[in-house]
Amino acid sequence: MDRQRIEALAARRHQVLTRPEALAAGATDRELRHRVSTGAWQRAYPGVYVIHSGQLGWLTRVSAALAHAGPGAALSHSTAADWWFESPATREQRVGQPVEVSVPARRTVVAHAGLRVHRRRPMPGVFHGLVAAVRPDDTAIDLVARAATDDDVVGILTRATRRVVHPAALLLALERRDRVRGRRLVLEVLGEVAEGVESPLELRYRRDVGRAHGLPAADLQVRERLDGRWVRADCRYRGLGVRVELDGRLAHPGGRTDRDTWRDNAALLRSSELTLRYRWSHVAAAPCAVAAQVAQALRRGGWAGTPTRCGPACTLAGA
């Protein structure tokens, strides 16, 4: 067995080697069985080996799945989303998640634990880099098509556009699909994304608090320098001295941070702007009360308008 050739072949696929490659490099089936039985190598799938005994990193796991799935296979759905939309450190935390791959419909791949195979007709566009993966725009639409809730759809689209996908590319990907559940919602959300919405919580605030109660439009995701640092405000009512920061788990997993506190203080000292801070429970469960509080702050800043009730059951007046 030519060890140098074995290592060179495996290095191209993140330490993954197939049985035909090993045999072509001079190995025998007996040698392959011996290396697995002694723990020097690991058998990821039938005929697919990892040529070390340590823990499998994310790239090694998905490369083994692609090698098993065979020609034309590509990472897709949640696994492709991890590749396109997450950092390497976050991907490594997905150890227990199944690997999802898509293959052309004419092919059949044997299912295994920890592997989900999608047979596609037609096969979406694939990008071939370190790994083969369905393009990011098609990946986002794949996830939208199986999303359980509207908030999930918003989260998928804002996650995609925040990282690598332009809203126009998502619109084109949507047009290429005959049927996508929630198509109207996708079009609506992409319009909001183009105006600066970056999370489900921001969309709920903009729709259920601001628009529904007739509040003035706020500028979204405003970047500016305060005390020599670049900071960003979720919502800023320019000229009215009010900022709104939305702290939900999707956007700020740890809640309020030291940086948040510093930013609020710097804004107050520089421009006397009041910062109102709301969490998911406020915006989702009590949007009328939030609107009443924001309206009160805006009036202090000089807003001459009057908030409106969002419907017969609106509690704006009582709040």
Descriptive report:
- Mean pLDDT is 86; it is low at 249-256.
- This protein has 14 helices and twelve strands.
- Helix 5 crosses helix 7, helix 7 packs across helix 9 (167-175) and helix 11 crosses helix 14.
- The chain has helices at 3-11, 19-24, 29-37, 58-69, 77-85, 88-92, 136-145, 150-163, 167-175, 183-194, 200-210, 258-271, 280-285, 287-300, and strands at 16-18, 42-45, 48-50, 74-75, 99-104, 115-120, 126-128, 132-134, 219-226, 229-237, 242-247, 274-279.
- Helix content is 44%, strand content 18%.
- The chain has a four-stranded mixed beta sheet. The protein has a three-stranded antiparallel beta sheet with strand order 1-3-2. Strands 4-5-6 form a three-stranded mixed beta sheet.
- It is α+β, with helices and mostly antiparallel strands and 319 residues long.
- The chain folds into three domains: 3-54, no CATH class; 60-194, no CATH class; 200-300, 3-Layer(aba) Sandwich (Endonuclease, Chain A).
- This is Type IV toxin-antitoxin system AbiEi family antitoxin domain-containing protein.
- Residues 4-51 form the AbiEi antitoxin N-terminal domain.
Question: What's this model, at a glance?
Answer:
The protein is α+β, with helices and mostly antiparallel strands and 319 residues long.
The structure class reads: alpha+beta
- State the end-to-end CA separation: 78 Å
3D shape: elongated
Estimate nothing, just give the exact number of structural domains: 3
Largest pleated sheet = 4 strands, mixed
The helix/strand order is HEHHEEHEHHEEEEHHHHHEEEHEHH
Mean pLDDT reading: 86
How much strand content do the residues show?
15-25%
- The number of distinct β-strands equals 12
How many separate helices?
Answer: 14
Radius of gyration: 26 Å
Helix content: 40-55%
Spatial strand arrangement across the major sheet: 9-10-11-12
In the predicted model, the low-confidence regions spanning at least 5 consecutive residues are 249-256
